[in-house]
Amino acid sequence: MTTTQPPGPTYRDELAISHHFVEVLEQRLAGRDQLRRTNVHPLDWCLLGVLGPVKPEPAALELEVEQPEGQEAANGANGQPTATAPAKKAGGKAPQAAGGSGVEDEDVAAKPVDKAEEFEATRRPPSALGFEILAEPDDDGVVELVVDASFCLFTKHLPSWKEQTEVLGSGSGASEGLPVAEVVQRWPLAVEGIRFQLRATGERSQDDKGAVQGIVDEALQKALGRDDAGRKWHPRPKVDDPAYLKDEQAFGPFLASLRAMYPLELWQILAKLEVRVWPRADGKLRIGCYLRNATPATGVGYQDAYLVVGDAAVKATLIRGALRPIEILPVPQDYQFDRRVWAVGHNTSVRVSPDHQRLETHALATHEQLRIITRNVPPAKFLDLAKDPLATLGKIYAAMGDYATDWQTRVIDANTLELDAIELKECVKDLAGFRNEMERFATGAAALIADPRLLRAFTAMNTVFSRLAVDYESWHLFQLVFIVTQMPALAIRENIRSGEYPKGTPRSWSDILDWGDVLWFRTGGGKTEAYLGLTCCAILYDRLRDKKQGVTAWLRFPLRMLSVQQLQRAMLMVWEAEKERKTLLGDQASASDAIRLGYFVGSTTTPNSLSEEDLTQKYATAQSREPMRVVPDCPACGGKGTVTVEVDNKAMSFKHVCSTCKAELPLDVSDDEVYRHLPALMLGTIDKMASVGQQIKYGVLWGGAKWRCPTHGYGFGEYCFVFGCKADKKKRTKVVPHDPAPALHIQDELHLLQEELGAFAGHYETLVRYCEKALSTLPSKVIAATATIEGFEHQVRHVYGVKYTRRFPGRGYDRLTSFYAEPATDTEGQPKTARIFVAFRSASLHQADAAAFCTEILQTEIDWLVHNPHLALAFLKDAQTPDDVHRLMVFYTTSLNYVGTLMGGTRVTQELEKVADKTRPETHREMTVEYHSSRSTGAAVADLVHRVQTPPQWSDAAFLDAVVATAMISHGVDLERFNLMVMDGIPAETAEYIQASSRSGRKHVGMVVVVLPAFSIRATSIYHRFLEYHEHLERMVSPVPVNRFAKYAARRTLPGIVMGLVYGRHAAETGNQKLKERHTADAMLQTMGPAVLDELRGAYSLGQGVYDKNLELGLDQTLAEQLAIVEGSIRTSQEKNLRDAIRPTPMRSLRDVEVGVPFWPDVDYTVLQVVKKVKD
Q1: Which residues have a Cβ under 8 Å from the Cβ of 590 and sit 6 or more positions away?
Q2: Any idea which fold 11-19+831-1013 has?
Q3: pLDDT per residue as tens digits for the range 1086-1124
Q4: 1005-1059 tens-digit pLDDT
Q5: I need a labelling partner for 516 at 20 to 30 A (CA). Which of 17, 23, 124, 372 fits?
Q6: What is the value of pTM for the model shown?
Q7: Contact (CB, 8 A) for 783 and 745
Q8: What residues does each domain of the chain span?
Q9: What is the spatial distance between Cα 368 and Cα 1000, in angstroms, rounded to a whole number?
C-alpha cells in the first residue's frame, strides 16, 4: 500500500510568513513592541530612524553638486542635500507653513565627497531624515506638498514595585541592594497634513510653524507631570532595605521619599519638519523634505541618549506640480532598464508610488526580488532524448525559430515596445545574438549527426541523467541548448569539422576551439548540471572513440575549498556514467578504464604525495583519514554519511567504501593517485595550476602515460610514480594514448579570477594550452561558468589566450523574459517573489552586534510560532492545521549569518551564544550555533550540509538553529532550508553580494537582512537608493580587472612557466624523468638555444594573433630579460634538483605572491652576479 506524501507549503504561505518576519523585525528594531522598559538605553531600544541632537554651531546647509536632469549620479554619492518641513497633530487642523526658518544643520546637507572616500568622518546618529525630489511647478508656478511625520520620544521614570522586583527575576527579594531601576517610556507621536506651497521665487526654506514642536512639548509635559517622572540624581540611590520590596504598599512610601529628596530631571527636545527649495535654471525645483532634531547636544552621552528622536518617518503627497526624475543611475543606458531615480532618501530609504504622487520613507528598507525560472517549452525530457534525440532537438530548433520570428515582426518591425532609434538598434543586436545561438545549436545537431559515436554518447548521457533525476524529468532549455552547442568541440577531436543540419544546410566548426564560451545564468539556475551533463557526454564519447584512459574534463574552482555538494553531484554523475559505459561497450568494457573522479586540490585539504610511511602511520586511524572523506554519501545505495576511508597499502591509495552496501567509490583524493589513475573527471582548485612548475608527473595529465605498473597505475620514464615500487618492470603494460589532452577545461565562478590571481592563472592556463597543442595536436575547449559577469570578453581573453569569446545564453527583448527564462507566477498570474531584501543602519551598534540581534529576534519568533502554531494560522493564507504550520516552518527554522571577516564571524557567534537560552522561551533547550569558515575541514562542512538537509526534531538538542559562515558559503552551497539570512554588511563587490544573498530563497521565499555600516559612503548611497540599486543589481557588477601583460605578474610566473615547459612538455613528451635534475635540464635548454624563448612566447600566448602587437612587444622584452636570469641561475647553481636551483623561486600556489629571498653560499663571482640580478 502506497502512502501519500502530505503537500508541501504553498507559495502564498511562504510569502506570508516572510512578510511576518519582516514585520516582527521592524517592530523589534524600532522598539514598537513595548511602551516601557527597565534599565535600557534608548539607543539600544530603538535602532530605526534615530535622530540625534546636533552639535553646537552647526555648519551651513549645502547641496551636493547639483546634476542637471537626465545626468547620471556620481558613484557612491552620499545622502544628497537637505532641507526641512512642517507638520500637524493627527486629527487637528493643519497649520500653515511659516517661511524663513534659517535653521541649518551639517547633518542635513551632505557636501560633495571624493569617490575614493569610503567612510564619513562623523560617528553619531544623524539629526535629520527625509527625502529629496525634483518637481516641475504647475501652470501657476506652484509645487504643493502635504506632509505627515511620525516618530517617538523617550523619557525616564521611577519604577513600579513590579518593575523593580523583576530587575533580576521574580520575587520580592530579587533586586534587594540594587540601585533603583530606571524605567524608560516610549512616546509614539505623529503629525499630519502639513501643507507647503513652494515657488521658484518664494522662500527657500519653510518649516511647520511649530506643529512638531507642539506635540513634542505636550508629550514631555505629560511625562514630567506624572508621579513617576524621573529624578535628577547621581549616582542612583539603592534599595537597601528589603522591607521596601515586600509589596506595592511597602514600595510606595520609598518612592515618595525619593520624590521628596530629588528634584525632577528636566530637558527639552527641539524638533521640526522643514522643506527647502533650490530653484533650477530650467524652472524645476529641487526640494528637500526633512524631519529634524534641532536639540543642542550636551556632549554627555548618557544625557544625549534621551535627546534623540526615534522611529522617524516622513510621508508626503504631491498635490500640485509634477514629480520628475532627480537622478539617472550611473549605469549604461539600456532599453530594457529604467535608470530614472524619482526620489533620494536622506539617512533613510524612500519609496515612490507608481503614479509618482506619494512618497514614504522607510528606515527599514525593503525590496522584493522576483523569482526567475527556466522555461521548459518545448520540453526536453531525458527519456525522449535517450530514445529519439533528433526529434526533440528538431522541436526546440523550430521553437527557437518561432521566437526569433515573433521578435522580428512584433518587437522590431511593429515596434510594440515603442523604442527610439538607438534603442531599436540595440534590440536588433540582441536578436542577432539569439539567431547566432540558433545557428550554434544547429551546428551542434549537425555534429551529432556527423559522428554516430557522438550521438550514442549524447543519448547515453540522457539515460544517465534520467536515472539521476529525482524531482524532475527533463533538462531546462538553456542546459540542453548549451550542451548541444558544445558538441562540435568534441567532434573536432576526431577531425570531424563539418556536417549538415537541417538536411541540406551545411555547417562548419573548424574554429570551435578558438572560442572561450561563458555559461551565464542566475544563481541556482542549474549551471552545474549543465556542465556536468556536457562532461558526462564527453567522457562516454572518449570511451566510444577509443580513448581508453586519460583525463576527459578538468573542472576548476577559484576557492581553496570546494563545496561538498559539488563533489557529491560529480560523484553521482561519475557513478551512473560508469554503469552506462559498461552498457555501451559490452564485452569491450574491460579494454578501457572505469570512469573515476579525481579530487585535485592543495595539500592543506588532501595530501599531495603518499608513501608507505604515510599510509601505515600518518593515516593509520579513521580519525586521521577523516579529511579524505570528501564524499560522505554513497552513490550506490544513497546512504547519508555512510562512506568511510580505508587504506590500501599494496596499491598505495585510499579506498572509499560505503559501510552499508560495501560499494567502493571510484575516487582519487591525493595528487599521487590522480597522476597514477588518470581519472576521467578531475575536480579541483585553480591553485593547483602552479604545480606544473613543481611536479614532473604533472604533464601526464595532458601528455598521457607511457606504461602502466601492474600494482600502482600509470607512469612514464624509468621509475614508477610510487617511490620504492618493487613491481617487475617487465610486467609493465605499454600505453599508447589516444588524444591524451582533456577535451574540456571548465572554470566555475569565473568572476573570482581577478587582479593578481587572474593574471597568474592566465599565464599558467596558456602554458597548459600550449603543452596540450604540442602533445595532443588540439588544445582543450575552454568553458567558464558564472552567475555574475561584466566585461567577460576582456577577462576570458586575458586568462585563457583564446581569440574569441561569447556568452550563453544571450538575453531576450525583455529583461525578465527570454527563450530560456521567465518570471515565476502565482495562481493569479502575478510574479512570485524569490527573496525579500531588508536593510537598515544602526548608529549605536557594531555591525556584527546588530546582525546577531537580528538573528536573535528571528530565532525568538521562530520558537514562538513553533509552539503556538495557531498564531501563525491567523496570518497564513492556505495552512489549515498545526501540522501545515510545522511543514512550513521546517524551511525557516535554521538561519544563516553571513560575515565578511573571520573576526566578525567570531563576534557574531559569541553574541548569539550569549542569548542562546533567551531565544527559546518556549523550548527547553538552548539555541545551537555553529561557525564555519575556510578553516573548516571538508568533513565538517559535509556534516553541516547533512544536518541542515535532514534536521532532527525541533526539541532535539542536536537541532541546528543558526549557522554563522564566511564567504566560503557563497559558492556552490545549495540548501533549501537557508531562507532566513542576515549579513553583517554589504560586500565590497556587488558580485559577491549577489552570490552570498542567493543562498537564501533557493526554492522557497527567503529573506535577506543586511546590516549596513553606519559610516560607509557606498552603503549610504545604496541605502538612499535601495530600490533602484536592487532593480539594477546585476548591472552594478564591476568589470573584472585582469591584465596578463603586467610586468610584475610575468616576472613572478616566469620561473614556474620555464619549469612547466621542461616538465609539462618535454618530460611528458619524452618520458625522461631525469629532466627534474638540474644538469639534464640545463643541457637540454642549452641545446635548444633561442628555441626556449620561442616556446616561452608560445606558453604566454604571444604571436598567436590573440593580442595587440604593441602589448606583446613589452611582454616580449620582459620574458627575454627574465629568461636570461632564470637560465643563469640554473647554469651556475650547485643544486641537484632543477626546482631547487631555479631562481627566483617558482610559485607553489597562484596565491604565492611574494618572492622568497634565499640565503646564498659564498661562491664564485659569476653566481653572485646572478644573485644580484635576481634580487634587483
Answers
A1: none
A2: Rossmann fold (3.40.50)
A3: 999 999 999 999 999 999 999 999 999 999 999 999 999
A4: 999 999 999 888 999 999 999 999 999 998 998 888 899 999 999 999 999 999 9
A5: 372
A6: 0.89
A7: yes
A8: 11-19+831-1013, 49-358, 380-609+670-704+740-808, 1047-1175
A9: 13
